[in-house]
Amino acid sequence: MTIKERIEELERRTLSPKASLSAETKGRMRPEQPCSIRTEYQRDRDRIIHSKSFRRLKHKTQVFLAPEGDHYRTRLTHTMEVSQISRTVARALLLNEDLTEAIALGHDLGHTPFGHIGENALSKFLPNKFEHNKQSLRVVDVLEYEGKGLNLTWEVRDGILNHTGEGMPSTLEGQIVRIADRIAYINHDIDDALRAGILKPEDLPTEPIEVMGRYPGQRIDYLTHDLVENSFGRDEIQMSPKTARLMNELREFLFEKVYIGSIAKTEEEKAVRVLESLAEFYIAKPHEMPDEFQPKKEEDLYIKVCDYVAGMTDRYALRKYQELFMPSSWMVD
Q1: Structural contact between residues 19 and 94, judged by C-beta atoms closer than 8 angstroms
Q2: Which of 29, 154, 184, 288 has the greatest number of CB atoms lying within 10 Å of its CB?
Q3: Quick one: CA dihedral 265, 269, 271, 275, positive or negative?
């Protein structure tokens, strides 16, 4: 018996009957020789961690554009916080922690530079709205590994696609990530907004703070316990109605006070101009893009341009904008 087979047997003996067993995965789009020491979900997790798109998350905006402080979240630190919450919940519910972690680590790989405003900027160039969850799936299916994709399992791909939007993940592990994503960003965005001086502690909604706690760690702990207590042994991952209401109140508060119209968003118009200008430039001159983004058919041009621009980090997009549209200094001896 291989190490992988021992782990699969351990899953069968110790996990909940409702867990997604790695030995029972629906498989990959392209069959592969199995690894002798890792399960299929462990391989997916490792492929995501070692991907270029995962590394680029460290220089992509979460909420605050190009923050000067060292402690503001980036898309990468957000991803790690989602992963931590997701693993804690999966372990407590006796679900597959490896599958949950793989989904969590891959859920935001398709995010554009400058946060969600990048989605709106690139939607202008596509027949349908640019959605980061669909782009995350495209990253792992098509764009990574020099156009071959990471060839992930069906369950991880399903969780990445459905971590937001109208579709629901087919696995309980994917449902955990969907809720953990919201728990993470609501609480760390409040923390960052307080650090930036956009919010004051007394601005926060009274009931959610009194019930769940004033500090992010207290609220995350409260929400995680509630999620576990109301999901154990059930066919759906869910919070109690009261806790779901309180968390949604915090989310609506953030949209009103931080995500829309706050000082944190004053640079958004400039960021949109950067992305739109880059897209327009590469549409006119696609040969300026790397070989892997060259469209094979004319109808693929806009998709390939959006793939390239969406994959940029904030600072790379700014550097390319300066290189393409700003005059360079020169001197003559």
Answers
A1: yes
A2: 184
A3: positive
C-alpha angle 86-166-177 in degrees, rounded to nearest 5: 5
Domains and CATH numbers, the chain: 3-20+37-265 (1.10.3210.10)
Q: To the nearest 10°, report the CA torsion of 23, 153, 132, 306.
A: 170
Give the helix/strand (H/E) hosting 93: none
Rounded Cα distance, 78 and 80, in Å: 5
Predicted TM-score (pTM) of this structure? 0.95
Burial class of residue 79 in the structure, from the number of CB atoms within 10 Å of its CB (0-12 exposed, 13-18 middle, 19+ buried): buried
- Cβ–Cβ contacts within 10 Å for residue 231, how many? 22
User: Average model confidence (pLDDT) for the chain?
Assistant: 94
Residue pLDDT, tens place only, 232-264:
999 999 999 999 999 999 999 999 988 876 666
